[in-house]
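Shipment paperwork, digital attachment
Item: protein structure file
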Amino acid sequence: MKKKYYVSTGLLFLMFLSFTVIVLNFDVKEIGPNHSFVGLATLNQFMFDKLGVNLLWYAVTDWLGIVAVLIALCFCYSWAFTMD
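Attachment content:
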């Protein structure tokens, strides 16, 4: 049973590494804000042209990021003060 988890974990890690290498090296162009370089630029530009900008989703994801950091801080706090 444990071997199954090791295989799944290894495959997910390989997918993560593959995606990171692709984003860093494939189709990198200056299309971002302030002429920043973006990986998979053609796909990014296509999606931006189709979806546009929606400030509601920007605000939602901004607040969700803050909530995620606060939850992580709560775990750190509970871990630091429950150690014997």
